[in-house]
Design goal:
This protein is mostly beta strands. The chain has no helices and eleven strands. The protein has strands at about 5, 10-15, 20-25, 30-40, 45-50, 55-60, 65-70, 75-80, 90-100, 105-110, 110-115. Strands 2, 4, 5, 6, 9, 10 and 11 form a seven-stranded mixed beta sheet that branches.
Length: about 120
């Protein structure tokens, strides 16, 4: 089993930055693709960013050039650096893991709230 624990959320103003962390335990991080998702009130959960084990990344159009996903395989931690935050970035942010041998994200953290005031 893989356990994921997010941290780093909070209340910030538009234009500020936050860094979310996801501590991974139970398995070797290098064998997983890691993703950040978010869900705003009344909306469906959406993909924010994915870090593939080979070092490549992908981002939602709405956060590209503002957010950066990174991973520290030695410390089993995944990060989401969020810059130039906007009120529409307000959501619960979830860290998720997907085995490199599977096609779905099977492991999820409990989420961390990010609120951006205008």
């Amino acid at each position: 089993q893989v356990q994921l624990v997010e941290s780093g959320g909070g209340l910030v103003q538009a234009g500020d930055s936050l860094r979310l962390s996801c501590a991974v335990s139970g398995r070797t991080l290098s064998r997983y693709y890691m993703g950040w998702f978010r869900q705003a009130p009344g909306k469906e959960r959406e993909l924010v960013a994915v870090s593939f084990s080979a070092g490549t990344t992908t981002y939602a159009d709405s956060v590209r050039d503002r957010f950066t996903i990174s991973r520290d395989n030695t410390n089993n931690t995944v990060y989401l650096q969020m810059n130039r935050l906007k009120p529409e970035d307000t959501a619960v942010y979830y860290c998720a893991a997907r085995s490199i041998f599977k096609t779905t994200f099977d492991y999820w953290g409990q989420g961390t709230q990010v609120t951006v005031s205008s």
